[in-house]
Amino acid sequence: MIRAMVQRIRWMVLGGMLMLLLVGAGAFASGRIAPGRLGDFFFGPRMVRAEAVLLVDGQIHDFRIDRGKLKSLPRNGSLELREADGTIQVVPVSPTAEVTVNRQPAPLTALRRGMLVTAIRDGSAPAAQVVAEGPRAAGTK
Q: Which of 60, 56, 49, 41 shows the shortest CA–CA distance to 127?
């Protein structure tokens, strides 16, 4: 069931990217965004946070995507992120969240201070997916 939810979230994010493609058409027409680069433009290294409202199976989902450097180690099932604009965001994480560190499945405890973390949640629910990148994962050299 969790796997189906994560797969659904991935499709919703893709749907959100398609929506951004349509919204970004004006910027593309003005020559500000190169063809085929909308996903990179909106979700690339400059992204601070994003929100995508999608209609899935007749229900509205308001996805929040937070990205930032991990400020403190995970405790009480929450992450404290310093986003690129300096905002500190506390993101609750579901105990059943899919966590990856450097593209490998990992427990939440593998995250280390300073890692770049992206957390995806539906509305005010805890994050269902956490993606972390960085050289200092627990158990690695």
A: 49
Q: What is the pLDDT of residues 25-58, one digit of tens each?
A: 444 444 466 666 777 777 777 778 888 888 989 9
Q: Give the position of tokens 């199976």.
A: 57
- For 17-22, the CB contacts below 8 A with 24+ separation are 17/42, 17/43, 19/52, 19/54, 20/52
**Could you count the other beta carbons within 10 Å of the beta carbon of residue 108?**
19
HSE of 75, CA atoms in CB hemisphere, 13 A: 4
Neighbours of 35 (CB within 10 A): 6
Output the pTM of the full model: 0.69
Contact present, 69 and 81 (Cβ < 8 Å): yes
- By the 8 A CB rule, do 26 and 78 touch? no
Which amino acid appears at position 92 of this protein? P
Residues 113/64, Cβ–Cβ less than 8 Å: no
